[in-house]
Design brief:
Elements (H helix, E strand, L loop, with lengths): L10 H14 L4 H13 L17 E2 L5 E5 L7 H4 L7 H12 L20 E5 L12 H18 L3 E5 L1 H13 L15 E4 L3 E6 L4 H4 L6 H17 L2
Parallel strand pairs: 2-3, 2-4, 4-6
Antiparallel strand pairs: 1-3, 5-6
Helix pairs in contact: 1-5, 4-8
Length: 238
């Protein structure tokens, strides 16, 4: 996440290499086995589908705008479709909000070939494989961390939107290590907003998981507010 952007000719090649490295990663046998098992057993509603059942690469093109950081692919969402936040309720909420804020060309979210194009936005996870019970271990997060660091460097985002406490923690660890922040880590909360040198902005949001959306902890207007703030900050720093 250096102030200087990648050269235009170099960034696409490095971005493609990152995607290839993510998909080929076999550092976490437990996660790879789980992804394969889910893809073989399937959910009844998707029994005719061919599951991706592998690590899921970033979605979007590195343009220096917004980086959305989530936790991990859903077992029957991104692990099935092969695209971040695609095919489950979390993605339904996220893509609708991104579309309303102008970061996506449409709100459709069901399949990898549905025509979705992100604008000035990249989506990643701190864990690229679907974990059992949606809980990657600290060691597994550590194995995936180099991909997050490469994503931050190549995407060079002006705004980082952290979906949930674990994503927030991972970004602030990076900020401290890069001497972008000193002192206590800012508290996570929905709507949290912290400026870093650059200027860069880090925003916090509750994750659009069913645990949060079904209980009303996160509403669509709440998610719209924070994604709308991201849009304003991207435009301000352009």
């Amino acid at each position: 996440m250096s102030p200087k952007k990648q050269p235009a000719a170099a960034a696409p090649k490095a971005w493609q290499q990152l995607a290839q490295d993510v998909v080929a990663c076999a550092a976490c046998p437990r996660l790879r086995n789980y992804c394969s098992d889910v893809g073989r057993e399937k959910r009844r509603a998707y029994r005719e589908a061919t599951y991706w059942a592998a690590p899921v690469p970033n979605f979007g093109i590195a343009t220096g705008g917004l980086l959305v950081v989530g936790l991990a692919p859903g077992a029957h969402g991104a692990n099935r479709t092969g695209r971040m936040f695609t095919g489950d309720r979390s993605g339904e909420w996220l893509f609708r909000a991104l579309h309303r804020a102008g970061f996506a060309n449409q709100a459709t979210w069901e399949t990898r070939d549905d025509g979705m194009v992100l604008r000035d936005c990249v989506i990643t996870n701190i864990c690229h494989c679907a974990p059992p019970d949606n809980r990657p271990s600290p060691e597994e997060l550590g194995n995936c961390r180099p991909f997050l660091l490469r994503t931050l460097e190549l995407a060079n985002p002006r705004v980082i939107l952290c979906l949930g406490q674990l994503a927030w923690t991972a970004i602030w660890r990076f900020a401290v290590e890069q001497n972008l922040h000193s002192g206590a880590r800012p508290a996570f909360g929905h709507g949290a907003r912290v400026e870093l040198p650059g200027p860069r902005w880090v925003l916090g949001s509750y994750h659009p998981s069913q645990q949060n959306t079904f209980t009303g902890r996160l509403t669509e207007s709440m998610l719209d507010d924070v994604v709308g703030t991201a849009r304003k900050l991207v435009e301000r720093s352009s």
